[in-house]
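Project channel, design review

CF: Before we commit to the Yarrowia lipolytica constructs, I'd like one complete example in the thread so the newer folks can see what an input/output pair looks like. Taking 2',3'-cyclic-nucleotide 3'-phosphodiesterase.
RD: sounds good, go ahead.
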Amino acid sequence: MTNLGTSLWLQPPRNSPIWQQLATTIQGLKPIFSDSENFEPHITLTSNISVNTQGQVDFVLDRAVAAAKCVPQGFQIHLSSVKYGSRFFKKVYLQVEPTPELLSLARICREDFVYMPEAMSQARNYQAMSAEERQKIDTQVGQRAAEWTRNEYDPHVSLVYSDLYPVEDADRRTIETRLEDTFGSGYDESGLGWKNGRFALVRCEGPVDEWEVLGVRDF
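CF: and here is what came back for 2',3'-cyclic-nucleotide 3'-phosphodiesterase:
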């Protein structure tokens, strides 16, 4: 298992039907995997955020809300078909449509909360730099975040965390039957998803049951 540092999650509205369906599915699939964990439904926007104070937690959450509210029609998440992978955190998951709005939000979060703090800490004195020097760093950080979003970011909603691999065909059939029972036949083409929701800043270090929610914002 890999420590993810502190991660920013985008979650369905608390106690909404889709929240309940996803949470029930995560819990219901645990018996299929002997090492599976329970966790809240979410899309990770970025990991490796460094926060040490409540003020930093508030900054991240407030900035994320401000970015999401720039979408005038509301922030829409679209889920599609179930996928299977080899990694612990992407064993069984629902793919999320990489809409321009979602990719833009992930890029902003990666830039503002990961790459910019790194660049500022590596600079000898960022605030004392000339405007031209700061602009050069800002441009490099923006380009790095755009490249990460283009080449590495893969939005999804995990349903199972597990080291077991591969997922056997019989287990796949069981999983897909349960998903259809929960979400309905053809759920992957029926517009499954949610609008707006909640940001959660979560310290993802150590065992999953020891992860700590540092703060949340509904939007």
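RD: helpful, thanks. The helical segments are 17-29, 54-68, 100-122, 131-151, 169-183.
CF: The longest strand covers residues 76-84.
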